[in-house]
Write a structure and sequence with these properties.
Oligomer: single chain
Order of helices and strands: HEEEEHEEHHHHHEEEEHEEE
Radius of gyration: 21 Å
Shape: globular
Number of strands: 13
Number of helices: 8
Structural class: alpha+beta
Largest sheet: 11 strands, antiparallel
Length: about 300
């Protein structure tokens, strides 16, 4: 018996990888706190998604198809932005993704198709969604810049981190010596220009029951001290009521998996970026298998 097997047990995967196709509903709420005198700003979206998954040799292949998206906000300034964002979601509703055997996102496989969809949308729908020429010019520049860096940005996107988790190297039996960290991730600050958080997801809870595996991950911020010195501490220099101790960066993700397939049964993600109690950005996500409506007649 090897030393690693003595301490950690046999490397038996907790999740099996089987082919599946599943429809989900993903509800997302973004909340901004922008000063004591301002009311919180909230923006909600609800998406219906079809996720296909299969494995070939040492790689996992996923297709994520956006079937429908709706949104709502009570903030008048955000309503126009929301309507345009919903229209843009129709440009490229299908994304093909390649991952390694652990689940880490490696590449987007249909970048040519994404460019083709954009060119067609630009020709036929741009003018109706963005009537002002200056808005058209700005959108084209921003969207094409985004397409060029799409792969890198997708790897930072919390929705895709939730949908396509890096969990397949979890082994049985976990014990007091077992620890799990995802590969390095990053996300740009929504509150402080120039700040990019570098973090990893750490396993903090694991439970098994029959064919269900529950896991919970919390973010470990790797560049906290560096960011406090370079950017965040400056925010508090002229603030008597607040201190750097109030700074918070948090990502918490909970999953219920079907063990025999690796399929997500439901999941939740909670993100918090907070400078103090009146300056914060939060995201709540809830992913569930789409309920089937039965007709009687």
């Amino acid at each position: 018996m090897s030393v690693s097997n003595f301490f950690f047990g046999e490397n038996i995967p907790l999740l099996q990888l089987e082919k599946f196709s599943q429809e989900y509903t993903l509800n997302v709420e973004n909340t901004f706190l922008m000063g004591k005198e301002n009311t919180p700003i909230s923006l909600k979206t609800s998406s219906e998604l079809l996720v296909d998954q299969h494995k070939e040799t040492d790689f996992i292949y996923n297709r994520v198809n956006l079937l429908k998206i709706t949104g709502d906000t009570e903030d008048h300034a955000l309503k126009f932005f929301l309507l345009q964002s919903l229209a843009l979601a129709d440009i490229s509703p299908n994304i093909h993704i390649k991952r390694n055997a652990n689940g880490k996102i490696l590449s987007v496989e249909n970048k040519d198709e994404l460019w083709k969809s954009w060119e067609e949308w630009k020709e036929h729908k741009l003018a109706s969604v963005f009537p002002e020429e200056k808005d058209q010019v700005k959108l084209v520049a921003n969207y094409e810049k985004g397409l060029k860096s799409f792969e890198g940005e997708l790897k930072k996107n919390l929705q895709y981190i939730l949908l396509l988790p890096e969990v397949y190297s979890l082994i049985f039996p976990p014990n007091e010596y077992y620890s799990f960290l995802s590969s390095p991730l990053s996300i740009r600050s929504r509150l402080v220009q120039g700040v990019e958080y570098s973090y990893q997801l750490k396993l903090v809870k694991l439970e098994e029951e029959n064919n269900t595996l529950f896991v919970e991950f919390h973010a470990v911020l790797n560049n906290r001290e560096e960011l406090i010195k370079s950017h965040i501490k400056k925010l508090y220099e002229n603030e008597k009521k607040f201190s750097v101790d109030q700074f918070e960066f948090s990502v918490k993700i909970r999953y219920n998996f079907e063990k025999s397939t690796g399929r997500i049964m439901n999941a939740e993600l909670y993100f918090v970026e907070k400078m103090h109690e009146h300056l914060a950005y939060m995201i709540d996500m809830d992913l569930k298998i789409k309920s089937v409506e039965l007709s009687i007649g």
